[in-house]
Amino acid sequence: MKVVSSRAFNQDVSAAKRIAREEPLFVTDRGRPTHVLMSIEAYRGLKGRRESIVDLLAMPESTEFPATRDRWDR
User: Fold this and answer.
1) In this structure, is the dihedral angle defined by the CA atoms of residues 15, 20, 24 and 28, taken in order, positive or negative?
2) pLDDT at 72 over 80
C-alpha cells in the first residue's frame, strides 16, 4: 500500500497514476487518508463487475462532418 500527501499528488499526478496501475494509492490531507486512486480494473474487481459487451462496443464521441449532419437534419 502506497501513501502520498495531497501536495505530492498535485505536483506529480502522472507518477500517482503509474503507482495506481500496480496497487491502490492512498492520498492524505494533513496526515489523514482522504482519497484512494486505483486502476479501473482494480475498481471493477472490487465492485465485482467485468466489462460488458456494451463497454466493449462503446465508441468515443464521433466527429461528424458538416455535410453528413446537414443531409440527415432535413
Assistant:
1) positive
2) no
pTM: 0.62
What pLDDT digit, counting tens, does each position of 3-44 carry? 999 999 999 999 999 999 999 999 999 999 999 999 988 988
Question: CA 73 → CA 2, 28, 42, 64, distances in Å?
Answer: 53, 51, 43, 12
- 3-state SS, residue 12: coil
Query: Amino acid identity, residue 57?
Result: L
| DSSP-derived pairing of the beta strands 2-5 and 25-29 | parallel
Closest of 25, 45, 23, 44 to residue 34, by C-alpha:
25
Q: Are 40 and 20 spatial neighbours (Cβ–Cβ below 8 Å)?
A: no
All domains of the chain, ordered by start, with CATH? Answer: 2-73 (3.40.1620.10)
